[in-house]
From TrEMBL:
The keyword Kinase does not apply. PROSITE patterns: PDZ (PS50106). It comes from Commensalibacter papalotli. Residues 304-394, 413-505 form the PDZ domain. The keyword Protease applies. It is an enzyme of class 3 (hydrolase). It catalyses: Acts on substrates that are at least partially unfolded. The cleavage site P1 residue is normally between a pair of hydrophobic residues, such as Val-|-Val. Keywords: Hydrolase, Periplasm, Protease, Repeat, Serine protease, Signal, Stress response. Its main location: periplasm. It is found in: Periplasm. PANTHER family: PERIPLASMIC SERINE ENDOPROTEASE DEGP-LIKE-RELATED, SERINE PROTEASE FAMILY S1C HTRA-RELATED. Pfam families: PDZ_2, Trypsin_2. This is Probable periplasmic serine endoprotease DegP-like.
């Protein structure tokens, strides 16, 4: 039986449910709209994923990052830690631009590092100090390559291998100018050793691996890429470093830099860092330089370098017309080495080279700049005859020169007066090599300050290593003995001596007052 509701009740019931019906219809409409938008967006996304004829399509090569695990396992037994014990006899021990401290290459004359490192003098009277570095074995009979600054002045040198064995090392030879050293250790059994590669094949951008003993941690491996080749860091005429971004720190000095085929392409030597830690700018001596130097150290215990007796400078764009050189593109640097001065009675003078000549090639190979000329001449065996092609007054001319021995040449006299006077300086002759290092013109005659005693009259007067003394109390001096005698003569009559010096191309007068504390 069906109940029939009266009219009023039916109207009232319908009015109560109507809002809910309306809400349901609205919800249905919204859901339908949402579904429609999702369908549109999905279609749009699918369209974006489709290939389009006009889109940019980069062409790239997919390559995995290199894995150095096997390389490191194989070479690590030949990489060594080096501990040098030396006596600090009251002289300042300078911590400078090296990964492990020590003087900069070629810094035996006291020239400061070109890097902005803090340097901390520490007085250590009659005290044994230790220096740590790295190295690597290059022969089964125990020849070890490292940096000169790691072992220079050492009384005892200990070489530690990966397996924990330790050996006392003997210095076979040192070369401060390239900061290389050759050591020898002995054992009844042959040593694991690694091979020097060809650094000429190294290119910017390739992966390299550095292994060494940073902070005494031993056997530490870092990797990076070659940042640049032939880098000149301002140390001297033989600079030609490989720059790398592999982290190098204190203690890495003397350690090997490997290419991906496991060959040594460099010896880690210096870093550029405001704090002393790695910022990804390191420098390694190229392996081809190492081969030449180490070969001479093994044979003779020292390095013989070629010498022709010139100072050269770069050719600038503004010189091209005056020198009658061929024009070059505006974005390219002019090539060649402009001869700025020639030492009297030198091989260059005897061979007919003139000031103003531009050296274009040496033995058939182009000369890019003065540094390349210096490096290549230095690597030539003394007594060898070389052929230079020079441009003179716009005409090419062949010049034949017999290379002399840099160490034997009278212009390279290495005399150093250890205690020239009671003002506390050590003096050296102003040789062509030193002229080029400190940038002194050929017209300047004098003697160079190669060392200054701490808290001496010279130190208190503000004299610096690298200053050139040209006169003492207005008396010109051109050799250490003359300077020493003149200073001593003046100080017999007075406590003050007036020095005229050249520093950074500027001429200065510096009064020095002698005293008891010298």
């Amino acid at each position: 039986m069906i109940n029939i509701l009266d009219k009023n009740k039916l109207v009232k019931a319908f009015s109560q449910v109507t809002p809910y019906i309306k809400q349901g219809l609205l919800a249905s409409l919204l859901v339908g709209s949402s579904i429609s938008m999702v369908n549109v967006n999905s279609a749009r996304a699918a369209d974006l994923l489709n290939e389009h004829a006009g889109a940019i399509k980069p062409v790239t090569s997919t390559q995995n990052l290199p894995n150095f695990v096997n390389l490191v396992k194989q070479v690590r037994p030949a990489v060594v830690s080096i501990t040098s014990k030396m006596t600090a006899g009251g002289e300042d021990q300078m911590i400078s631009g090296f990964p492990d401290g020590g003087n900069f290459p070629g810094g035996s004359g006291g020239f400061s590092s070109p890097f902005p490192f803090p340097m901390f003098p520490q007085q250590m009277p009659k005290q044994i100090i230790e220096a740590r570095g790295s190295g690597f074995i290059i022969s089964p009979d125990g020849y070890v390559v490292t940096n000169n600054h790691v072992v220079k002045g050492a009384k005892i040198i200990t070489v530690s291998l990966e397996d924990g064995s330790k050996y006392q090392a003997k210095i076979i030879g040192l070369d401060p100018k390239t900061d290389l050293a050759l050591l020898k250790i002995k054992s009844d059994k042959p040593f694991s050793f690694i091979q020097l590669g060809d650094s000429n094949g190294v290119e910017a951008g390739e992966w390299v691996v550095a292994v060494g003993d940073p902070y005494g941690l031993g056997g530490t491996v870092t990797a990076g890429i070659v940042s640049a080749r032939g880098r000149d860091i301002g140390d001297g005429p033989y600079d030609s470093f490989i720059q790398i971004d592999a982290p190098i720190n204190r203690g890495n000095s003397g350690g090997p830099l490997f290419s991906q085929d496991g060959k040594v392409i460099g010896v880690n030597t210096a870093i550029l860092s405001p704090s002393g830690g790695s910022i990804g700018i390191g420098f390694a001596i190229p392996s081809n330089t190492v081969k030449s130097i180490i070969g001479q150290l093994e044979k003779n215990g020292h390095v013989t370098r070629g010498y022709i007796g010139v100072a050269a400078q770069s050719v600038t764009s503004s010189m091209i017309k005056a020198l009658k050189l061929p024009a070059v593109d505006h974005d390219k640097a002019p090539q060649g080495a402009l001869i700025a001065s020639i030492s009297p009675d030198s091989p260059a003078e005897k061979g007919g080279l003139n000031v103003g000549d531009v050296v274009l090639s040496l033995d058939g190979k182009d000369v890019k700049d003065p540094r390349e000329l210096a490096v290549r001449v230095a690597s030539i065996i003394p007594g060898t005859t070389i052929k230079l092609v020079v441009l003179r007054d716009g005409v090419k001319k062949d010049i034949t020169i017999k290379v002399a021995n840099l160490n034997d040449d009278k212009q390279d006299n290495k005399e150093i007066v250890k205690k020239p006077s009671n003002i506390g300086v050590a003096l050296s002759p102003l040789t062509p090599d030193i002229r080029q290092q400190i940038g002194v013109e050929e017209t300047v005659k004098g003697v160079v300050i190669s060392g200054i005693k701490s808290n001496s009259p010279a130190d208190r007067a503000g004299l610096q290593t690298g200053d050139v003394i040209v006169s003492v109390d207005n008396h010109p001096v051109d050799n250490p003995s003359a300077a020493t005698d003149t200073i001593a003569s003046v100080l017999k009559k007075d406590t003050n001596v007036l020095l005229r010096i050249v520093r950074g191309g500027q001429s200065l007068f510096v009064p020095v007052t002698s005293g008891d504390n010298n």
